[in-house]
Each structure stands twice: as structure tokens, then as C-alpha cells.
Amino acid sequence: MADDFKDTSENRFDPAVSKAERFDKGVAIRKITPRSAHQDWIPRENREDPVEILIKTSTGRIESLLPIRYRRMIESPFAFFRGAAAIMAADLAQTPNTGINLQLCGDCHLMNFGGFATPERKLVFDINDFDETFPGPWEWDLKRLAVSFAIAGRWRKFSNKSCKEFAWNVADSYKRHMLDYSKLSALQIWYADIDLAELIELGQDEELKEFHHKRIKKAAEYTAHEKEFAKMSYLDGVRARIKDEPPLIYHPSENEEDQILKEAELVHKRYIESLPEDKQVLLSRYSMHDFAIKVVGVGSVGTLCGITLLMSATGEPIFLQFKEARQSVLQQHVKTKTKYKHQGERIVMGQKLMQSASDMFLGWTNDDKDRFFYIRQLRDAKVKPVLEIMKEQNMIDYAKACGWALARAHARSGDPSMLSGYIGKSDEFAHAISKFSILYADQNESDYNKMVEAIKEGRLPIAAEI
């Protein structure tokens, strides 16, 4: 259980201890927390009502956007799962853990992976959402990722046997690649990335490979800011403006706009100060022309998110996305502490620690109302997974890719030798994770049904279809 979690010194990375000794320490942990212990999910008798957790996590969000949040979550048990990171965090805190701590993604589900361009314009595959990043037990990320495949598989009408196989492949891929990383130096791990084009070539579906290669070609040619400018903005005299598309993109009311724009400029100035000096010089060539509220994602709906439009003196645009940074859903469930009081800085530093390459404009800021934000480019050659067209083998290939990416991310802040020692070379751990995933998929479905009932009873507001 999380209450028993101890980040003891012997479970931290010690460069003075050989890889073989660290591997043996991982093996020894099995006596305290057997690998088979991870297969069980039995909700405790006093388990908190999942609807109450949703209501708590909505506190402080923009009230008018909450019906959109619940509308998106009610679309399916899979959509519900994507917005229910806080519910699973509370549940994971009641499961056995190994006491091996590292930097977690925190909301590690299959839609938070994908392709994007590095600052050097290379397309890589990696985790791309870190709102909940926080130090904690490594297996929490892996369990949430494996469960997401089981739930998504059910959503796609695959059999329970297939869904279990998807989850198994997540854990098996994580095991195999973590063992590979355990043989590398720390510097080699830091240099490692997953080339998107090469990853696609590993797939077995020739038709889907051709589809993805076309997407990569399009992404590589995509001049994001200029095309977004043509699609999302217009000129209002000498000032560029973002087009309203209510209820998903909109400006503050006219009465508030002038004051809010002044506040936004102050927030933007603080953001610039968080960047390395070279990026400060770059962005000094641009001035803020406009900003608008933008509803994003599933779990983020209701937090203050939006886009800002910057323009150079010669008319070149840059779109930045800002997202409100709230306390991680993991924080109350772990004994570990963060040294970052600024939630935006927590996210940025966690992202830089886990990603092979991060957005060149990634930074943090805050307003004068004790709200924290982080900022990045709106889009940069992103290639998102398209679950709707995936066949069974495609899901297996994607599960392997996500397991690999998670192993790479964990290897940067964790101890690959100790993790590999604990997981071992057999299939026992993967079997345990796959069994847990099916059991928790059942729990998620039950929680989803409780949300549906809560909406029918009027406990949760819901928007008309949008």
C-alpha cells in the first residue's frame, strides 16, 4: 500500500554500486512485494465515491465549462477513464508497490503518446502530456497505461482475451526495453530517443504503415504557425486577432477584455523570464497580438487554458498554448515531496526529465491570482494515434511502442538495473499486469455507470452535444 511506501536510500540510484549489485537488489525486492501481487484489484470497503472525486477535482475550474467536461467524459468508459486520473490515483495508492521511486507521467494512458518534432526537426515518438507528473512508484504509470489499452480495446469491441493481450504487450515491451537500457550508460540513455519513421516500420500492417508514412510526410512539411494563422485568425486593422469558435474558442467579454489583455501581457512577460536566454532573445522579436480561451482535452476541461498569438514586425506568427497548472492528482497519495512550489515549473521540469526532447518554447508563468500556468507551442508537427482504424495487430504494435517509450522515460530518472532485476526475464510480471488491467477495466466501467446515474440525477451538469 502507499502508506507502506518508503523511498529508502538503498532503493535510490547509487553510481558507486555496480549494475549487477543493483540488479540483485531489484530481485530481492520480490521477497517483499512479489510480482504476482500486482495482479489483484479488490476495492477497499471504504473506497471513495468516484463521482465525489470528480466533483472535488472540478473545484476551482471554470464553472461554465464543467458541462463540457462531463459531456466529453460520458461519451464512453474510455473517455471517462481519460478524465478520471484522480480516481485511479486514489486506487493505485491502495495497491502493493515496490518502493522504487522515479519521475512519473501521472496520467499515463495511450492517448498521451504520439509523434512530434524535436527542436532539431526530427520526428520522434514519446509521451506528450505531463500535467500530473510527480515522483512516485514506477508501476503506477505502467498500470495506468496497460489498463488504458484494455479499456480502449473494449471500446473498439475487441474480445476480453485480446484486451488482456494488449495490456500484456505493454508490460512485456517495458520489460524488454528496460533490460536494454540497463546495459547502457546514463549518458547513452539520455541521448536515446524513438525515431517515429523507424518505429512505424516495425509494424506488420502494410496498409497502416503507408497511412502513417503519409501522415509523417505531411507533418514534416507542415509549417504549423503560418497554416494555423490562415485558419484561426484575421486582421483587425493592424492587429491580428484569433477567430472565435464558441463554445470551444472564445474571447473574454468586451467589458473584461482590455483589463484581461493587460494581465495576459504581464503573464507573458513572466513566461519569457522562465526561458533560457537564447529563447528570450528569439521571442523578443515578437509581440503579443491576441489571446483567447480554448477548451482542450478531456481531463483539462474547465481549467484555464487558451492560445496566444504573437507576431513579428514583418508579420510572421507564433501560436502558443497556455494551460493552467494545478496540483498533481498523485501528490496527496505519495510520501515523496516536490521541490517545486510553482505548479507550472513542476510540469516543465518533469517533462524535461522524462521526454527525449521537449518543445523549445516550453516554460512556466503565473498571474496575480495565485494561478500557475505552463506554455508551449500550440502544435508542432504532431502525429496522434488514430484508434478508430486500428485492427487487433495494430493495437498490439502500438502497445509495444508505448511500453518502449515509457521504459525510456523511466530509465532517465530511475534505475534500469534495479527495475530489470525486479521484473526479471520471465513473463510473470506481464501476466500480473494483464490480469490487473482486466479487473480494473471492470472497475472503470462500474465507475462510468455511476457517473451516468449522477448525470441522470442532476448531480453533474452536462452540456448539449457540441
Please summarize what this structure is.
This protein is α+β, with helices and mostly antiparallel strands. The strands form four sheets. It has a six-stranded antiparallel sheet, sandwiched between helices. Strands 1-4 form a two-stranded antiparallel ribbon.
Structure characterization notes:
- With 466 residues, the protein is α+β, with helices and mostly antiparallel strands.
- The chain has two domains: 2-220 and 384-456, no CATH class; 223-377, no CATH class.
- The chain is 47% helix and 14% strand.
- The protein contains 17 helices and twelve strands.
- It has helices at residues 19-29, 50-57, 66-73, 77-82, 85-92, 138-155, 160-182, 186-191, 196-201, 206-221, 224-232, 254-273, 277-283, 343-354, 392-413, 416-423, 428-456; strands spanning 101-104, 113-117, 123-127, 134-137, 233-236, 239-242, 249-250, 286-294, 305-312, 317-325, 363-366, 372-377.
- The strands form four sheets. Strands 7-8-9-10-12-11 form a six-stranded antiparallel β-sheet, with helices on both faces.
- β5 (233-236) and β6 (239-242) form a beta hairpin.
- α1 (19-29) crosses α16 (416-423).
- The longest helix has 29 residues, at 428-456.
- It is globular, with a radius of gyration of 22 Å.
- Mean pLDDT is 90; it is low at 1-10.
Q: Extract low-pLDDT stretches.
A: 1-10
Main-sheet strand order equals 7-8-9-10-12-11
Question: What would you report as the Rg, rounded to the nearest angstrom?
Answer: 22 Å
Largest sheet, in brief, is:
6 strands, antiparallel
Distance between the termini: 41 Å
How many domains, as an integer? 2
